[in-house]
Amino acid sequence: MTAFPNRLAEEIWTSRYRFVAPEGAPELSIDATWARVARVLAAVEPEAQAAWEGRFADALADFRFLPGGRILAGAGTGRRVTLCNCFVMGQIEDTLDGVFTALREGALTMQQARTARASRRLGLGITGLADALIMLGLRYDGEAARRVAAGAMRSVTEAAYRASVEIARDKGAFPLFDRDRYLAAPFVHALPSDLQAAIARNGIRNSHLTAIAPAGTISLLAGNVSSGVEPVYALSYQRRVRQADGTTASVQVECHALAEYARLNGGAGPLPEPFVTVGDIGPGAD
Q1: What pLDDT, in 10s, does the model give residues 226-265?
Q2: Does 77 share its domain with 98?
Q3: Are 132 and 209 members of one domain?
Q4: Residue 13 per-residue DSSP state
Q5: CA–CA gap between residue 224 and residue 260 (Å, rounded)
Q6: Mutual orientation of helices 49-60 and 30-42 as an angle, nearest 10°?
Q7: DSSP state of 77
């Protein structure tokens, strides 16, 4: 059974993502939550469902891959909920009519299953960037850190696009795929030439594949790793966490990189210079 990195991670799982069946039987561990999600993901592969379920479970294990919060909470529960995690809305007019119009558009967006299937849009990204940079001895707002961050996201992007092309070769491109228009997009035009050629030859399964999401709550679940690509908020602080019964509890939170540094070095002596928080980074930093 996987142990939680800290008390806060367990509190987040219990209050946000742990499924309790209608008859009252709760998931006993985060492993059961991962198994539930893996089972649903593999359900579309009837010829090798068990093998895919194992692969998905392995990817999720030990917090290596973090699904969006709605997926983690809703997939495989039988509840009538959306698994779409994020969407973009236009500017909202600061009037009562403007607010109601935005709510209507949001509700429609959350229910357009046909549009979602036509584009098969995904949002793969990274989280814990600031912690990783600290562990590499790099200051968050330094040029070397920016190069590392760009390289990490480039690796994710290219791997995702290559995988999507392979799936398209097996299952077909997303229904709205227009080869010439898609390849003419500036972002796609900047991909490696061999990858562009593969898209031209096989199509691609997903219209979009990457996104930089805030990833706040699921980052807490993974041990309070720094959120998305944001800098570390604070090295330690108190956070109020809403419980399943609606009450709140105060929980001590410690920066993941700081906890790892203390574990590896005994916690003695001053912290190295890369331990910076959002308050240490000037407004002019890139």
Answers
A1: 999 999 999 998 888 777 677 888 888 889 999 999 988 8
A2: no
A3: yes
A4: I
A5: 11
A6: 140
A7: S
What sections of 93-192 are H helices per DSSP? 96-111, 113-119, 129-135, 143-171, 179-184, 186-189
Positive or negative: CA dihedral 23, 27, 32, 37: positive
Considering the domain architecture, whether residues 186 and 209 belong to the same structural domain is answered as: yes
* pLDDT of the residue at 133: 98
Number of helices and strands (H, E) in the chain?
13, 2
Q: How many domains does the chain have?
A: 3
Helix, strand, or coil (residue 237): strand
Q: Judge if 133 and 26 occupy the same domain.
A: no
Q: Which domain holds residue 16?
A: 1-85
For the segment 121-125, the average pLDDT, to the nearest whole number, is 91
The rounded percent of the chain whose pLDDT value lies above 90 is: 65
Unique residue bearing structure tokens 């790099």: 138
Are 111 and 187 within one domain? no
Q: Are residues 141 and 209 in the same domain?
A: yes
pLDDT of 7 above 70: yes
Same domain, 156 and 72: no
Q: For all residues of the chain together, what is the average pLDDT? A: 90
User: Is the domain of 101 the same as that of 33?
Assistant: no
